[in-house]
Design brief:
The structure holds three protein chains of three kinds. By secondary structure, chain B is mainly α. Helices cover 75% and strands 1% of the residues of chain B. Chain B is flat. Chain C has 18 helices and three strands. Classes of the chains: A alpha/beta, B mainly alpha, C mainly alpha.
């Protein structure tokens, strides 16, 4: 059952993209993340699994400092990308987030046209030289998002008018358009139907060629299907981290075993 | 008998009915309340309601209807010859009422006897002087037809009030009787009482509609009356506003509309940027302590009565502007009352209005939008300018329209700050006047309500009402559509 | 990537270190700072206006609470009285005695200043007449020392408050530069001084030529009776209407009409309500003009939408589980509302009502149309019923009347009136806040 569909699993050792050491996160007085150490590899899909409230989304949001927008949230420890501490005082979170893109649980297209949704990132980061260049970026990103064929005739239509699955692929395309190096996905399929989910999963697998992808998911099957590495979070602790195949077939920690066999969660 | 005593009597009867009804219900159940269909108080309430409600309703209707009847009878008593040229029957009737009031008061003071008030003849005794001696305000010399009409008016009103008191008390007693008769232990008192209470609730809710109907009717009738005396084409087409109570006025609404529009524009130019930026800062940037201090402080501005802003415009802003732009400064301004004076004060008044509406609207933009934008590496200001404000635009437009409607309908600031002269000019440092200011000036003072110079105020009111209503309906529609989008 | 296909293009963004801010980010951050500065500037401007407003009110309004008086101890002997009464110009004789007494007093204090009768009259009014009136009415006070407290003329009052200045004073029949020397001398001797002006708080409006005597007391009473009418009509009607709309109204056209009506009425300009009051209550029903009763009726109609909107919000805040619980033990719908929902919503309703009342208290425009202008408030109404029906004014209308008068001395009264009005409004709002804090319930 836990056999991944991609039998030719790419488990070659890749460069380490993100490394986290002794990360602690507090929400006011609540200790949400406890002492997490974790290395995320380049050109790999890493899945964070665990029961709800275990801190997997919180940890994900630390990776591009989205937690900065929450007043009561406090992060301690070291997280570095390519060896640079992202919580260093000199780091501008705006520059960081251009490097580490994010896709959210609920599709959140802006109330603008499809074209403007994609063009938003390139525009604010000044990636396009001229209009033709921008058109090219938009088309390429929509193709990367595997949604080009569905929307190419109505780029001026509002992005909010698409179906849920299309909206989520639009959001992925939007994130890709800024050419990030890491793509964070916070339960990207939880609001989608099964067909849309499989489309998005295929897309994630393709994205692995160019990006380091981190995905938080509720569904163990999804983690098994799309990821090469899996991290299991429980009550704010990183319980186990390793190759997906190993975690699902031969977990070391008893808590992991209980979770994947459905005894807790 | 003063109406207030009649009300007290009816209420006393209702209380008595309550006690009687309750007792009777208990008796019919043999003193055991468990045998009753409803709680004993419901039986009492049933009787009390039946005593008070019809009686008080009748009284209200009577009080409204009686003056009509009396007026028409008294009006019939005045021969056409008694209506002087240039006057009207309405004016003579007003005089009759004044005389009658004067007689009433004089009798109450003991200055004249009831006998005298009823039978005095203006041809033989100098009633006017005697009334004046008694401290009553009587404007003209009371003539015999007026005095006779006034005496008739008094008598009819007195009789009418007496009959009303009798009938109302009778109805209340009948109500008690009716309520008591149906009281027995199987009577479903609670259902009946609850139905009546529901009817009262509906009546209360309908008052809002009645108010609107009242506004519309009082505007329409007087406006029609005005257009009968003064051509509508002149009112809407003329570029001059120069009322003179001697007749020969020119009453063009355009200069007033221009003044209204211009002052509102200045106010919005002040209020919208400040209000909007304040709202954006408060909802997106401000830390909690800053927000909890600055927001209520700004809202204090909204709680200040407009008369304060009027005085502020006239006595603080006006002189300040005058020292900068007046003869001693750039020389653009000649007096402290000007479009900018009123506009600035009005703008200050509208800042909290714009900011709190925009604040609500900005907060209604889902957090997911912000996250999406931050996640792409946008700065806060980019997110606000390119995602939040466009998303909130319909709502903000609605808020600005509501503020415009406020500005157009504002009275005290323009009455004190804008000036009295109607002018069609582009210079914002000149005094101009508005629709609302002219409504006040045409309706205060002792003018004859039948003259076009007074009636024009109703046409102005109608114009104002239609403009603000249109803006409000449109704005509320936009805001509601906007809310639905994110619900 | 060596094989640059369509899907794997050259990266557009150069790989940069996070530790250095590139040029574009610098520019963007600068624009961010600018934008934030606009926000701060907007708030600062708003607060600046508030401060200026508060400062104007306090600075211009406080003088209304003080007045300048002349304190003189003066003795008139029986002989002087008889002599004065025997003369042709009696009041002139009285002022003669007074001036002599004053001169002696100043000499005793070692103050050197010359003055004549006209100057005295310009400073403290027709003193001879005042004295004669007093002694004719109180002959037993003859030969006794009497402490007279006389109101100084309005311009002298203005001199003490800075409204009238030496540099700009033009000699006129009201006041000359020489008089100011006398005033200074008298002030030095402690004869002229300023004191708290009770008359302003308790008095009624005065004529246009007597700004010193104008008081706001009568209008406060007018406002009070109006607020009584508003409270006793708008609270029950507003609550009843809200209960119907929130708890009983079926979804139909009539309900829709009522709802749309209420939200639109809340935005109708107040002056339109004044027109309504004039046409319906005064022209049509012939209710007395300028009566607080009519003012209260107009303000009730104006406040109702506000009260209904806030009452509905507090009813809505009561969770449905409370209703279900009451219905579950067999209460009727009406009982569940009146026994459970309404008491729970009451603090919110009262808060909304107080805020609505505060709004009504500050409203001016409709009152002007129904004749409640300031100069009507010439005295206190007699009795409780008179309070509702006697012509009177209200605080804001009184303030307007003063502001519209030509004599600038009234401006001070207008600002002073605003201080009193704002004290009332502040008190009401504080009560509302306390109510909310005290009884606020979060479900």
């Amino acid at each position: 059952m836990y056999d991944a569909p991609h039998t030719e699993r790419d488990v070659d050792q890749q460069d380490i993209k993100i490394s986290a050491r002794k990360v602690q996160v507090y929400y006011g007085t609540t200790h949400a993340i406890k002492d997490v150490d974790c290395d995320i590899e380049d050109k790999t899909v890493t899945a964070f699994i665990g029961p709800s409230g275990c801190g997997k989304s919180t940890f994900l949001r630390c990776l591009n400092r989205m937690n900065d927008t929450i007043d009561v949230c406090r992060v301690e420890g070291d997280i570095s990308i390519d060896g640079e501490d992202i919580y260093d005082k000199r780091v501008d979170p705006v520059q960081l987030r251009a490097k580490v893109g994010m896709v959210f649980q609920k599709p959140n297209p802006f109330p603008k046209s499809i074209y403007d949704n994609i063009a938003y990132g390139p525009r604010i980061h000044g990636l396009a030289k001229n209009k033709a260049d921008l058109d090219e970026i938009v088309e390429k990103s929509l193709r990367r998002g595997a949604i080009w064929d569905e929307v190419k005739d109505r780029l001026d239509a509002p992005g909010t008018g698409l179906s849920g699955g299309q909206q989520q692929r639009l959001c992925i395309a939007r994130a890709v358009a800024t050419e990030p190096e890491v793509l964070l996905m916070d339960e990207p399929c939880s609001a989608l139907d099964p067909i849309a989910t499989s489309q998005v999963e295929e897309l994630i697998d393709e994205l692995r060629q160019d990006y380091s992808v981190v995905i938080v998911t509720h569904s163990m099957q999804q983690a098994a299907r799309v990821s090469q590495k899996t991290a299991f979070f429980h009550l704010g602790n990183l319980v186990e981290f390793g190759d997906t195949g190993k975690i699902f077939t031969n977990p070391v920690d008893s808590r992991t075993e209980s979770y994947i066999t459905g005894r807790i969660g | 008998m003063p109406v207030i005593w009649l009300i007290v009597i009816v209420l006393a009867l209702a209380v008595a009915g309550f006690i009687l009804g309750r007792t009777r219900a208990m008796q019919s159940a043999g003193g055991d309340r468990r045998h009753l269909h409803s709680l004993p108080t419901y039986y009492g309430s049933n009787v009390a309601l039946k005593a008070a409600v019809p009686a008080i309703l009748l009284m209200v209707v009577w009080l409204v209807a009686q003056p009509f009847y009396v007026n028409s009878v008294v009006s019939g008593m005045i021969p056409d010859s008694a209506v002087a040229d240039g006057s009207s029957r309405g004016l003579v009737l007003a005089e009759v009422r004044r005389a009658a009031d004067g007689l009433d008061n004089a009798v109450a003071l003991g200055a004249i006897s009831e006998e005298f008030a009823r039978n005095a003849r203006a041809d033989f005794t100098d009633v006017t002087t005697r009334l004046k001696e008694a401290g009553q305000i009587v404007t003209t010399q009371i003539t015999q037809p007026v005095l006779r009409a006034a005496q008739k008016y008094r008598v009819m009103n007195a009789t009418g009030n007496m009959i009303m008191s009798g009938v109302v008390i009778l109805i209340a007693l009948l109500g008690i009787f009716w309520g008591l008769r149906e009281t027995n232990k199987d009577f479903r008192a609670r259902n009946v009482v609850e139905k009546s209470v529901l009817a009262l609730l509906i009546a209360a809710a309908s008052i809002a509609v009645l108010t609107t109907v009242g506004i519309v009717l009082s505007l329409i009738f007087n406006t029609i009356e005005f257009f009968r005396l003064y051509p509508a084409s002149e009112f809407f087409g003329s570029l001059t506003w120069s009322p003179s109570f001697g007749g020969g006025s020119e009453l063009g609404v355009l200069p007033l509309l221009w003044g209204t529009f211009y002052i509102s524009l200045v106010a919005l130019i002040v209020a919208v940027p400040i209000g909007l930026f304040a709202a954006v800062y408060l909802s997106e940037y401000a830390s909690k302590p800053v927000r909890s201090f600055a927001k209520p402080m700004l809202e204090v501005l909204a709680g200040i009565p407009t008369i304060v802003y009027g005085l502020f415009a006239l006595l603080t802003i006006g002189p300040m502007l005058l020292s900068a732009f007046g003869p001693d400064g750039t020389g653009w301004m000649s007096g402290q009352r000007a479009v900018v004076t009123a506009g600035l004060a009005m703008g200050i008044m509208l800042i909290p209005f714009v900011s709190s509406l925009s604040d609500d609207i900005i907060n209604a933009v889902p957090q997911a939008m912000r996250d999406g934008s931050y996640g792409l590496g946008a700065t806060k200001s980019e997110t606000i300018k390119q995602v939040i404000l466009p998303a909130a635009l319909p709502g903000i437009v609605g808020a600005v329209l509501l503020a415009t409607s406020r500005a157009i309908g504002e009275t005290m600031i323009v009455v004190l700050g804008a000036g009295a002269a109607a002018r069609l000019s582009l210079n914002p440092f000149e005094a101009m006047t508005t629709v609302t200011a002219k409504i006040v000036s045409q309706l205060t003072g002792d003018s004859d309500f039948a003259s076009p110079e007074a009636l024009v105020a109703f046409a102005l009111g109608m114009t104002l009402f239609i403009m603000t209503l249109g803006l409000n309906v449109f704005a509320l529609y936009i805001v509601r559509k906007y809310r639905e989008q994110y619900d | 990537m060596t094989d640059a296909s369509m899907d794997t293009p050259q990266p557009r963004r150069a790989k940069t270190s996070l530790m250095t801010e590139d040029a574009r980010t610098k520019k963007r951050n600068a624009s961010e700072k600018r934008f934030q500065a606009y926000g701060i500037a907007a708030i600062a401007t708003g607060l600046f206006f508030l401060v200026v407003l508060a400062f104007s009110i306090v600075r211009s309004g406080l003088p209304a609470f003080t007045t300048t008086v002349v304190d003189v101890n003066f003795t008139l002997t029986q002989a002087q009285f008889d002599e004065a009464e025997g003369q042709l110009f009696k009041t002139k004789a009285y002022s003669g005695y007074f001036i002599t007494a004053l001169q002696q007093k100043l000499e005793a204090e070692n103050v050197q200043v010359a003055f004549d009768e006209a100057a005295i009259e310009r400073i403290m009014g027709k003193i001879g007449g005042t004295l004669r009136e007093y002694y004719t009415a109180n002959p037993d006070q003859l030969d006794e020392e009497v402490a007279f407290k006389l109101n100084a003329a309005s311009r002298v009052d203005g001199y003490f408050k800075g409204r009238v200045q030496r540099e700009t004073l033009q000699d006129s029949r009201f006041l000359t530069l020489a008089d100011l020397d006398l005033v200074d001398a008298l002030a030095e001797a402690g004869i002229v001084h300023t004191t708290f002006n009770w008359g302003f708080i308790t008095g009624a409006d005065s004529g246009v030529d007597n700004p010193g005597g104008a008081g706001i007391g009568a209008s406060v009473v007018g406002s009070f009776f109006m607020m009584l009418v508003v409270l006793f009509l708008s609270l029950p009607i507003g609550v009843a209407a809200s209960i119907y709309l929130e708890e009983f109204a079926p979804q139909n056209r009539w309900t829709d009409i009522i709802e749309v009506n209420i939200s639109n009425l809340a935005a109708v300009p107040s002056i339109v309500f004044g027109i309504l009051g004039l046409a319906v209550f005064i022209q049509f029903m012939h209710l007395p003009q300028s009566a607080p009763l009519v003012g209260g009726l107009v303000l009730t109609l104006m406040t109702l939408p506000t009260i209904i909107i806030s009452t509905r919000a507090s009813l809505k805040a009561v969770p449905p589980s409370i209703r279900d619980a009451a219905l579950g033990v067999g209460a009727s719908k009406m009982q569940s509302v009146f026994h459970h929902v309404l008491p729970l919503a009451m603090p919110g309703i009262l808060t909304g009502t107080i805020i609505g009342l505060a709004q009504a208290l500050g409203e001016t425009a409709p009152l002007l149309l129904i004749g409640m202008v300031g100069f009507v408030a010439r005295g206190y109404p007699d009795g409780l019923i008179g309070g509702f029906t006697d012509p009177n004014s209200a605080m804001p209308a009184q303030i307007y009347t003063w502001a519209a008068r030509a004599d600038q001395a009234f401006y001070e009264k207008a600002w002073g009136g605003i201080i009193i009005l704002l004290i009332f409004l502040l008190t009401m709002n504080i009560i509302a806040i306390i109510l909310r804090r005290r009884f606020e319930r979060r479900w």
